[in-house]
Design goal:
DUF1365
């Protein structure tokens, strides 16, 4: 099999909540970083399948519009919003299914142009209530570290207010990858902001092949189940600290937000 652009990143997730009550945790995890044009090749791995059950698998319906042919779906999404040049190569950083199960609080798409420059990053945020929102943010090419920001537009945690903003600091996939998110809120409706949450994933590169997949299965046993269990365990700890429950809209939804080339902001249901 020819060498793949797709790979693994082994590392840690850290969450540090600053207020109104402090809470911090660190978990060892790994992610796959998939070149969406290599899915057919990846399907030939012994322990990794596309759209079918295996020790590890990737199901296109878990992402984007929930339909197959994710590469075409994401390219259409970018093109329809004025970013056709960012469709040359698309890499997705996410958790795979392990023994058929996964949950991705955040899936990150790195979208490159024909000069191999990172032009757009898509942050696909999912909550445990079945909703999904994609933040489409432009990235300046030829920079080792990408900094972006946007306002929060989807309910995620029962203990996190909606009137907050995300600041992203990204080291795109290479020998290592880093996704760092700082969530802030305004102080007493003034211009000043203060941090409420800092969340990071940092990982080191590893090849994606049968040997490495079998290795991470035993290094990170039932990891995706532990991700979901960890979400509820940390929520229980915050509830015991008597944090205020935030109201949420009922129903499931998929949506996207972006800013066009002229600087106008848009929001659309998918």
């Amino acid at each position: 099999m020819p060498e793949l652009n797709s790979c693994l990143y082994k590392g840690v997730v850290m969450h540090h909540r600053f207020r109104p009550s402090k809470n911090r945790f660190i978990y060892r995890v790994f992610c796959v970083c998939l070149d969406l044009d290599e899915l057919a090749q990846l399907n030939k791995q012994r322990f990794f399948s596309i759209n079918s059950f295996n020790l590890f698998s990737f199901h296109e319906k878990d992402h984007g519009s929930g339909k197959n042919d994710l590469a075409a779906n994401i390219r259409a999404l970018l093109t329809d919003r004025g970013f056709a040049s960012a469709t040359h190569n698309i890499r997705l950083l996410c958790y795979p299914r392990i023994l058929g199960y996964t949950f991705n609080p955040l899936s990150t798409y790195f979208c490159y142009n024909s000069d191999a420059e990172l032009e757009v990053i898509l942050y696909e945020v999912s909550n445990t209530f079945g909703s999904r929102h994609t933040y489409l943010l432009e990235a300046k090419p030829d920079t080792d570290q990408v900094r972006q920001r946007c306002d929060k537009l989807m309910y995620v945690s029962p203990f996190m207010p909606m009137q907050t903003s995300y600041s992203f600091r990204i080291q795109p996939p290479n020998k290592r990858v880093a996704v760092c998110i700082r969530q802030t809120e305004r102080v007493d409706s003034e211009a000043e902001t203060q941090p409420i949450l800092h969340a990071t994933f940092t990982g080191e590169y590893s090849v994606l092949n049968d040997q490495s997949l079998l290795s991470v299965f035993f290094q990170y046993p039932l990891m995706t189940l532990k991700v979901m269990a960890g979400i509820h365990w940390e929520a229980l700890k915050l509830w015991r600290k008597k944090l205020t429950l935030q109201p949420r809209d009922s129903g499931k939804s998929h949506s996207i937000s972006w800013q066009d080339k002229s600087g106008v902001s848009h929001y659309e249901s998918l």
